[in-house]
């Protein structure tokens, strides 16, 4: 996850690393952003016995999530937040309300 700042906007870039974009939830929470990622892993294994008298199947399902809260500088306009998804990343832009000096977004 990277955070960048330009003269007119703040940018949050989340590299997906194989995670589907719909498993990344981003929403304003007060003067911050809540970023939640959800991971679902499912495996299926099937094997036959060597003597040909049957087979065994196993399934494994695991889920997990991670939440991170990122403060947004005072000049960030959360009402105009925009999100763009691609296969590689989620990009969130937050326009700056005015071209004024703001604290670092880290």
Automatic annotation (TrEMBL):
Out of the domains of life, which is the source? Bacteria
* Record protein name field: SHSP domain-containing protein
Q: Native species of this protein?
A: Halochromatium salexigens
InterPro entries with a match to the protein in the record: A-crystallin/Hsp20_dom, HSP20-like_chaperone
What residue stretch is flagged as signal peptide? none
| Domain SHSP intervals | 1-106
For this chain, the family text in UniProt reads:
Belongs to the small heat shock protein (HSP20) family.
